[in-house]
């Protein structure tokens, strides 16, 4: 949210009305060219001579003040919300070591403090339900006591890795059977930076046709 500060407010510089005081320490009545005291037509009371006329109260001046107060109030509300966000961010920065308080990914491909764990490998031998040791193409990026998703074009499940071997990953007993080529992934997520959204990763099969060249 951006804050908009209005620079259009002008000070009115109000002035007091100051009356002249006579030798008798009383206000001096205004008189016309004939020496007659001038009376206010609304109140019927005498008008008095002034040293300073003062600023008259009018709807225009009061509305000017009203607009200024409203603009200042609106600005303070927005400023308060911005400061609150900053306080929350600073609090998160102090409580989330190594992550600096960032819990969101904009999914637009730009770098941020969150990185997607893209560790992925293939099962090189088909397995049946109940299997705990998976022969895989690579163990790079996988660690014990982390969760992985196993999936092919038929089934999928999440399991915890208990041990890592030279070319094997030991997991909880599988609930499903999986084909050769099934995926073992730390995150079964495909990020679409064009539509800025997160989707499910795909398992695909390919047909290869061999041709003899004479």
Secondary structure blueprint with pairings:
Layout: E1 18-19, E2 50-52, H1 59-95, E3 120-122, E4 133-135, E5 147-151, E6 156-164, E7 168-171, E8 183-185, E9 189-192, E10 197-200
Antiparallel strand pairs: 1-2, 3-8, 4-7, 5-6, 5-8, 6-7, 9-10
Keywords:
214 residues, alpha+beta, 2 domains, 6-stranded antiparallel sheet, two-stranded antiparallel sheet, 1 helix, 10 strands, 17% helix, 19% strand, rod-shaped, disordered N terminus
Description:
- The protein is rod-shaped and about 125 Å long.
- The strands form 3 sheets. The protein has a 6-stranded antiparallel beta sheet, with no helix packed on it. The protein has a two-stranded antiparallel ribbon with strand order 1-2.
- It has one helix at 59-95, and strands spanning 18-19, 50-52, 120-122, 133-135, 147-151, 156-164, 168-171, 183-185, 189-192, 197-200.
- The protein has 214 residues and is an alpha+beta fold.
- A hairpin with a 3-residue loop joins strand 6 (156-164) and strand 7.
- The two termini are 69 Å apart.
- The chain has 2 domains: 18-95; 120-200.
- It has 1 helix and 10 strands; from the N terminus they run E-E-H-E-E-E-E-E-E-E-E.
């Amino acid at each position: 949210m951006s804050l908009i500060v209005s620079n259009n407010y002008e000070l009115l510089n109000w002035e007091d009305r100051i009356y002249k005081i006579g030798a008798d320490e009383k206000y001096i009545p205004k008189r016309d060219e004939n020496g007659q005291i001038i009376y206010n037509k609304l109140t019927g009371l005498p008008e008095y001579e002034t040293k300073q006329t003062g600023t008259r109260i009018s709807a225009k001046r009061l509305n000017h003040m009203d607009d200024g107060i409203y603009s200042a109030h609106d600005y303070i509300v927005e400023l308060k919300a911005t400061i609150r966000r900053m306080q929350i961010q600073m609090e998160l920065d102090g409580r989330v070591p190594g992550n600096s308080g960032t819990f969101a990914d904009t999914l637009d491909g730009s770098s941020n403090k969150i990185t997607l764990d893209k560790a992925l490998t293939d099962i090189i031998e088909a397995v049946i339900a109940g299997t705990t040791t998976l022969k895989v193409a690579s163990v790079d990026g996988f660690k014990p006591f982390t969760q992985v998703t196993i999936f092919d074009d038929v089934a999928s499940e999440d399991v915890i890795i208990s041990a890592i071997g030279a070319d094997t990953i030991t997991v909880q007993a599988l609930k499903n059977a999986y084909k050769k080529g099934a995926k073992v992934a730390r995150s079964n997520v495909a990020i679409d930076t064009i539509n800025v959204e997160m989707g499910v990763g795909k398992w695909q099969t390919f047909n290869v046709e061999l041709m003899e060249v004479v």
